[in-house]
Write a structure and sequence with these properties.
98 residues, mainly alpha, 6% strand, binds zinc ion
Length: 98
């Protein structure tokens, strides 16, 4: 555990934080994860997908709420085309305060 290790850990923390922030997460949370568990934290943030922040819309047939990128409704099998912008809504982000 020397000075080099600290530099490596902080470098991984920075990379992890920047990637995490670009995916809608908190820079400091991912920075902490990347610093405490370098490499593993970086792999985690690369695999991490913030589903919560994907836009959603309702299936016109069964009203099931699905992600915008879903092309066939998983409940009723209806093919879903690009909806009116008014039907698309962004779910609230857990980190946002009113
Ligand atoms: Zn449906």
């Amino acid at each position: 555990m020397g000075y080099e290790w600290v530099v490596i850990a902080v470098s991984f923390g920075l990379a992890t934080g920047i990637i995490g922030r670009s995916k809608g997460g908190s820079f400091w949370i991912w920075f902490a994860i990347g610093t405490v568990i370098p490499l593993l934290g970086l792999i985690a943030v690369i695999l991490f997908r913030n589903e919560v922040n994907e836009p959603e819309r309702q299936c016109p047939q069964c009203r099931k709420v699905v992600k915008l990128y879903v092309q066939v409704c998983p409940r009723c099998g209806t093919e879903l085309y690009l909806p009116d912008p008014s039907e698309v809504r962004m779910p609230p982000r857990p980190g946002d305060r009113p």
